[in-house]
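PT: before anyone asks, these are the final sequences, not the draft ones from last week. 354 residues across everything. Please model them as a single complex and drop the result in this thread when it's through.
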Amino acid sequence: MAAKRKTPIKTRNPDLIRGVGKYSRSKMYHKRGLWAIKAKNGGVFPRHEPNPKPATAVEKPPKFYPADDVKKPLLNKRKPKPTKLRASITPGTVLILLAGRFMGKRVVFLKQLTSGLLLVTGPFKINGVPLRRVNQSYVIATSTKIDISGVNLDKFDDKYFAKEVENKKKKTEGEFFEAEKEDKKKLPEDKKEDQKAVDAFLIKSIEGVPELKAYLAARFSLKSGMKPHELVF
Amino acid sequence: MLDSGTGWRTGGRPEVDRWRLYVRGTILGYKRSKSNQYPNTSLIQIEGVTTKEEVAWYAGKRMAYIYKDKVKKNSSHYRCIWGKVTRPHGNSGVIRAKFKSNLPPKSMGDRVRVFMYPSNI
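LR: through. Structure below.
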């Protein structure tokens, strides 16, 4: 690659109108200095040795030729984009969950995962909501924001929340039932530690704001006379 | 009576009893003209919504018609038909809704729950 020029290169052949250049082929040949390159190389354009081709495996003739021409399906190069995050949702926003086990709970938004789901935490000590994923459509963003700049969220991604794949083990009936019961009940200790680590910082920020802790502990609910289309969140 | 939708979870505690995340709606009937009705679309009156402009907030929101039956299905006597708000109907805040399966005629006058999701706030 040639060294980068300070000014972008101007075309040597400006357009008179679109598709028609000012200079003819022979003039351009002269302008580009191809005569000088040839002269330098003894009257012939310089040629480079082609890169040695990688050794191709010996291809065996196929065993089976289909009788009719098989149509190849068209290539699909579409890459799905991640869900667009609403402008009202920024890291540290307090969200209200609208559905699911924790509906009505006010919860702190941490970050958006690559799958598009939102990573959210209670914090657990305040309202019992653990680190959880939530869909954007099932959430109302309030205007309350908490500072979460000190929290390290790198280790949380969709794989963290994937279901544990149980190994298929062949056991005797007695052993089998016992083992199953144990596995299901326990939450692995490292997940509890992760929760505590994230919440420790958050709770400090929350306690700094008056009444925020009680706000997060309380549930949202529609009361008589409340009209959601008139509420400002 | 069906409004204690969270009844099975409350255990009588007030903070948990008064916990509604849906807007109440009334089923007015089917979309109709004087002598013909079209049961695939129902008309719903949402509480507190009185103009066509206010309905815009509710467009696309999901709703559920919940009813009881003698026979237990999925270990519960309660059954549900899901639907969504499609568009306003007229100028006074009535909405049109389409349900997964048409609402039964006995539902006219009954309660419907209009949820706040899919949310756009």
